[in-house]
Structure formats: structure tokens, C-alpha cells
């Protein structure tokens, strides 16, 4: 790639830092230095060194490179001699006509200011045009590591773990995050002055200890153990790359023993994490897989919310639809014909010659008892004329509020009604009849109740009829069943994406057991399923006013059915992640097959259940029964069959809670007395 395109690609990869784990292989050392938080150098398929860029440069690097641009007449030996006086370990790395490169060790970094001051002061005397300092590059680290690897192959002494001395040992300290490294370093220098800090990681410090001062190792180890709590140290270990731990296991190497020559050592032997196994490995795998599932759900929170809230809404909808079916099938109750049946009614009347035989007083009293607004017209007016005038002034009020009017005199009385209201004729007759009854009987408590009874509904439409439960079952199969089906279908999304991207295969290559992989997926998916089931049951409980389907027994049966369905159907859904190459096509296949087998086939078999039962009594091995037993293997068919049985039994046990019409009380009483409650027992 050209430099500009390469930089754009680097920026893209760096934008994923913190949210993605990216594995990159490259031969370009600058690219590894820029992008890699951790860098590993491989040789013949084996990792030879591993660590951060800073650690590798410190372990393998040659320090700093001082580049001096000089004149042609410049005396290089004078410059180098002056530098050697300040930094004796300095070495000439390359010498060209116009450039001199001198290597300066890391350990002499504190002497650099004095060195630069001397060179700047003698700039003209040394014929120096310019100077520059550069750190060790990853290119140099790679070349140095490759050289050490070749030296190891030739049997030469080269221990990357001990870059300063082949016989050196390492002090490895595991620390807390807030540990003061400077205090630890000062203590180490007190006992081993020539020790050097090799690496300062987040949880580890590594020092190089020269073997010639190993008589101080015991005192150093004891001092560090004593200061563990003050320095916030977790563990301390002094180790030799060849013989193993010296402290705390001091039996490996006696003071008089000479260390054996190492045959081969990896760069970060003591820094690389040890491989875990057994229960610890299993726990770590499950923990990481669960975290991955949780992150996947959180990053797709909108899609997760849509599929999660679907069963809850469908649960509410099926309860509301069932109760709407109750209202339609029950039919209207009888209507009491009185002014109180209408809101905000007006009664207009005119009283003629006052006489003890006039009915207007009883008429007014009864009207007021029925919460009507009574308006009296002057006795000299024509009531018909007044009514027409009221209509012309406010036609809306005339049509909606004025229902009854009365004209009373000594010889006769007239009651007028507004025929816009359907029941106004009956109300007018009933009102006048009650006024006449109370006047003639002399009892103001006498009252005639007039009820308009509806036409009696047919027997097959009666909610107390046993066959009415079939309609409810069809409603539940149509509305409620698909809710959890969509949710479970969504659970195949992550396994499908990982299969298509190859991530699942990569995980299996890390010795991850397929059983652990699918078990971890199931744990999180089943947890989400249980949460949705609980919320669905709570929502249905509050909308099921008569608790026909959410009584104590019904709740236990419904929760058991749904939880068992989730246990089997989630694994069943995982199978569909192997068939298609996109989530949409896999979901369509999953929903289509289960709709046919679950809702349509189960509805048909429920409608002909009586025929199937008759055939089972004659021959248990008939085609219908064998087909049903085979299809019960499919979780959604079993779930649909269980819900059908649940709704049928729940309705049969509680249908008389809805039968509240007076002419149905006797029928419900006989049903309750003659039919014992069924216990939930559903074959699966």
C-alpha cells in the first residue's frame, strides 16, 4: 500500500482500539510499533518473544543512537574519545563520510545532558554540523531477536531473559496497581547495586540481578518479603532461567553450584501467563463467552428490546381479545327504562288549573328522583309553541337533552316524548304510569319498573356453552403462541454470525469445547427468556380481571409450560443457525416451519380432537396418533398443544365467572354442581 492509504488504514484500525480485539500479522516493523499494544515475534511458527513495544525495546534494544552530521575534515576519533570520557560504554555503530552513528546504552540516560552540553560547546572544534538522538526501533528489535534465535540454534550462549549477562537471574515482583515502583527500585539497589529494571508492567516488575552478587539475593528476598504490605506487593520471586526458582525455593541451586549453560529460552518466559486447565480454564471460558453474549445483546439493544417486548404485548393483546370475545358472546343485559338511563336529561311541563287531581306534582317528583332537570312553563303558554321555540333556539340541546314533556290541566293530561331517543316512548309511558299509580294509590313509594329485555342469544353463542372454549383456543393459538417463537428465533443470531465470519471455528481451534460454547450461549439466552416470561405473566395477570387464566393453579401450569418450552426450543433454534447464510433467511425458515407445525397443524388437530379420541379408543396405533407422537418431538408443536390444553381446561374450570346474566345463573349452578374441576395434566 502507498503511504497515504496505509496511514488511512492505520487510523481505521486505531479507531477500534478499546472496543475490539484485533490480531494483525505484518512484516512491516513500523506498522507493528504503531498499531500493536502487544507485539510477538515468530520464527518457524513459534512465538520467540512477546510484550509491549517498550518492553521489547528495553529487552532487545541497543539503547539510543546518537547521529552526528560532520564535515569532511572532522576527526571522528576525537569526538568518540570525548564521548567515551562521559559514557565509557558508548560504541560506534556506523561511520560514513558525512555521518557518524554512536550507540548509547539505556543505563547512561542520566548522563545525556552532560554529553549534549559538551558536544554543543565543542561544536566548532569537532566540526559538527548537526546532531540527533533516536530510540531503538522495532526493526532493530527484530534483527536483534533474530540474531539471538540463530545464536541459540548454533548452541551459543544467548538468553533473552538476561540480556546483560547470560548467568544473571531475574527478580519478578507481582504488585498492586498503586504500588510505588521507585521505592521498590531503591530497596533493590541497596542490596544489589548493579541490578537493572527490565520491565514495569501494570501488575509486574522485572529486575535483572547479576549472578556475581547472588550472595545478596537472600537478604534482598527477605527485605522485600518484610516490606510486602508497605510497598503493596503481592508476591516476590527470584528465578534463574536455567535452574528455575531460587527464592522462595532455595533447594534448586546451592551457593557453590555453577549455573548450567542455557540451551534455549524465550524472550518473555517469566512474563508470559501460565496456561490454565481444569475447572479454572472452564470457569474462564464460560466467563468470557457470557461476557461476549452480553456485549452482543447490549450493542444491539434496540433489536433485543423489540424481540423481548413482543411476547409481553402479545400476552396483553390475547387477554384483551379474549375478554372482548366474552362481551360479544354474552350479549347485552336488560335495560331499565327510566330517565336515569340517560345523562343530563330535561323534562318540560306546563301546569293548568290547580286542582288536587292534577298529576304534575307526582310527575315532577318522579322526574327529579331520576336525576332529570325539570323546567316549568307559564300556565298561559302553549306547550307545543314553547317546544318549537326551544328547538329553533338550540337544536342540539333539544335533540339530546329534552326527552319528555308534560301538559297537565284539570280535565286531562298529555305526555310528549322526543322520538330521537330510542327508548323515550317507553320511558314516557313508564313515567306517566308511575305518576298515575302514586296519585290513585296515595302511596308515594309505589313504583312500576319497566325493563327492556334483549332477544335471547342462541345456545351455541352462549359463553357458558362447552364449545365456546374452542373459539378461545383459536384466539390464543393465533395471537399468543408466535410471541415466544420470534424471541427464540432471535437467539440464533450470534451463533449464525460467528459461523459465517469464522469466529466460532477460531474459538474451537483454541481448544474450546463445543459443549461449553453452546452451554454458555444457552445460559444467557435462557436468562433473557425467563425475564421475558416473568414480565409477560405479570402483564397478563393485571389484565385478566377475573383471573380465568391467571389463577393460582393456572399460573403454575402456564409458567411451567413456558419454561419447559424455552429449555427445549432454544437448543432447537440453534440448529437453524447452520442452514442459511443470513439472519433474515434463517428467521424466515424457522418461523415458517414452526408456524405450519405449531399453529396451523395444532389448530386443525384441536378442532378434530373428538374424532382422534374416538379412533384412539378403537386403535391406539392409528395414523393420526402416530403422526401426533412424531410431531411432539418438535418443541413448538408440543408448546402449542400444551397451550391449547391449558386454555381449554382453564376455561372449563372458570367459565361461570363470566356468566352473570340472570337467565344463566341456574345453568352455571348446575354446571358447577355436576362438573368437577379438571386438574392440569397435559401429555408432552
From TrEMBL:
It is a multi-pass membrane protein. The chain crosses the membrane at residues 301-319, 473-494, 515-543, 555-575, 587-606, 626-647. Pfam families: ABC2_membrane_3. InterPro entries: ABC2_TM, ABCA, P-loop_NTPase. SUPFAM superfamilies: P-loop containing nucleoside triphosphate hydrolases. PANTHER family: ABC TRANSPORTER DOMAIN-CONTAINING PROTEIN-RELATED (PTHR19229:SF250), ATP-BINDING CASSETTE TRANSPORTER SUBFAMILY A ABCA (PTHR19229). This is ATP-binding cassette sub-family A member 3. The gene is Abca3.
Amino acid at each position: 500500500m502507498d503511504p497515504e492509504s496505509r496511514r488511512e488504514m492505520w487510523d481505521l484500525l486505531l479507531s477500534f482500539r478499546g472496543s475490539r480485539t484485533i490480531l494483525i500479522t505484518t512484516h512491516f516493523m513500523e506498522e507493528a510499533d504503531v498499531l500493536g499494544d502487544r507485539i510477538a515475534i515468530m520464527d518457524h511458527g513459534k512465538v520467540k518473544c512477546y510484550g509491549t513495544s517498550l518492553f521489547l525495546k528495553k529487552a532487545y534494544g541497543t539503547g539510543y543512537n546518537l547521529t552526528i552530521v560532520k564535515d569532511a575534515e572532522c576527526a571522528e576519533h576525537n569526538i568518540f574519545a570525548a564521548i567515551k570520557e562521559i559514557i565509557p560504554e558508548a560504541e560506534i555503530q556506523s561511520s560514513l563520510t558525512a555521518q557518524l552513528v554512536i550507540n548509547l546504552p539505556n543505563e547512561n540516560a542520566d548522563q545525556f545532558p552532560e554529553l549534549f552540553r559538551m558536544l554543543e560547546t565543542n561544536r566548532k572544534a569537532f566540526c559538527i554540523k548537526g546532531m540527533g538522538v533516536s530510540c531503538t526501533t522495532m526493526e532493530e528489535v527484530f534483527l536483534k531477536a533474530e540474531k539471538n534465535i540463530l545464536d541459540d540454534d548454533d548452541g551459543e550462549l544467548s538468553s533473552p531473559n538476561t540480556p546483560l549477562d547470560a548467568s544473571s537471574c531475574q527478580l519478578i515482583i507481582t504488585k498492586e496497581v498503586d504500588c510505588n515502583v521507585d521505592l521498590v527500585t531503591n530497596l533493590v539497589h541497596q542490596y544489589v547495586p548493579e541490578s537493572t529494571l527490565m520491565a514495569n508492567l501494570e501488575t509486574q516488575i522485572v529486575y535483572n540481578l547479576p549472578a556475581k552478587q547472588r550472595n545478596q539475593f537472600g537478604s534482598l528476598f527477605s527485605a522485600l518479603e518484610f516490606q510486602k504490605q508497605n510497598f503493596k506487593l503481592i508476591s516476590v520471586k527470584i528465578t534463574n532461567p536455567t535452574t528455575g526458582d531460587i527464592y522462595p525455593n532455595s533447594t534448586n541451586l546451592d551457593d557453590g553450584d555453577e549455573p548450567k549453560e542455557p540451551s534455549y529460552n524465550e524472550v518473555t518466559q517469566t512474563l508470559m501467563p501460565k496456561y490454565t486447565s481444569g475447572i479454572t480454564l472452564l470457569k474462564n471460558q464460560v466467563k468470557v463467552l457470557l461476557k461476549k453474549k452480553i456485549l452482543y445483546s447490549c450493542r444491539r439493544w434496540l433489536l433485543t428490546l423489540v424481540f423481548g417486548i413482543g411476547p409481553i404485548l402479545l400476552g396483553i393483546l390475547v387477554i384483551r381479545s379474549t375478554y372482548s370475545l366474552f362481551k360479544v358472546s354474552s350479549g347485552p343485559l336488560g335495560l331499565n327504562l327510566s330517565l336515569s338511563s340517560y345523562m343530563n336529561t330535561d323534562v318540560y311541563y306546563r301546569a293548568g288549573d290547580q286542582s288536587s287531581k292534577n298529576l304534575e306534582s307526582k310527575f315532577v317528583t318522579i322526574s327529579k328522583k331520576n336525576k332529570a332537570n325539570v323546567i316549568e312553563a307559564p300556565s298561559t303558554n302553549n306547550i307545543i309553541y314553547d317546544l318549537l321555540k326551544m328547538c329553533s333556539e338550540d337544536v342540539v340541546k333539544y335533540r339530546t337533552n329534552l326527552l319528555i314533556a308534560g301538559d297537565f290541566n284539570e280535565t286531562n293530561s298529555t305526555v310528549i316524548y322526543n322520538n330521537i331517543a330510542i327508548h323515550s316512548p317507553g320511558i314516557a309511558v313508564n313515567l306517566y304510569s308511575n305518576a298515575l299509580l302514586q296519585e290513585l294509590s296515595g302511596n308515594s313509594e309505589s313504583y312500576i319498573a319497566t325493563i327492556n329485555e334483549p332477544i335471547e342469544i342462541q345456545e351455541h353463542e352462549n359463553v357458558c356453552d362447552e364449545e365456546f372454549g374452542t373459539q378461545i383456543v383459536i384466539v390464543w393459538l393465533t395471537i399468543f403462541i408466535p410471541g415466544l417463537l420470534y424471541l427464540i428465533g432471535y437467539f440464533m443470531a450470534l451463533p449464525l454470525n460467528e459461523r459465517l465470519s469464522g469466529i466460532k471455528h477460531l474459538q474451537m481451534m483454541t481448544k474450546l469445547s463445543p459443549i461449553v460454547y453452546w452451554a454458555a450461549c444457552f445460559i444467557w439466552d435462557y436468562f433473557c427468556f425467563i425475564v421475558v416470561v416473568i414480565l409477560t405473566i405479570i402483564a397478563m395477570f393485571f389484565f385478566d380481571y377475573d383471573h380465568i387464566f391467571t389463577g393460582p393453579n393456572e399460573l403454575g401450569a402456564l409458567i411451567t409450560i413456558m419454561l419447559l418450552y424455552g429449555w427445549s426450543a432454544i437448543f432447537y433454534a440453534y440448529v437453524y443457525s447452520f442452514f442459511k447464510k443470513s439472519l433474515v433467511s434463517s428467521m424466515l425458515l424457522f418461523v415458517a416451519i414452526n408456524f405450519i407445525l405449531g399453529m396451523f397443524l395444532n389448530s386443525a388437530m384441536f378442532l378434530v380432537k373428538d374424532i382422534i379420541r374416538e379412533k384412539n379408543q378403537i386403535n391406539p396405533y392409528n395414523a393420526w396418533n402416530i403422526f401426533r407422537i412424531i410431531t411432539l418431538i418438535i418443541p413448538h408443536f408440543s408448546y402449542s398443544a400444551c397451550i391449547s390444553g391449558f386454555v381449554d381446561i382453564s376455561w372449563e374450570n372458570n367459565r361461570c365467572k363470566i356468566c352473570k346474566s340472570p337467565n344463566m345463573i341456574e345453568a352455571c349452578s348446575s354446571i358447577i354442581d355436576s362438573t368437577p374441576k379438571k386438574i392440569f395434566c397435559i401429555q408432552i
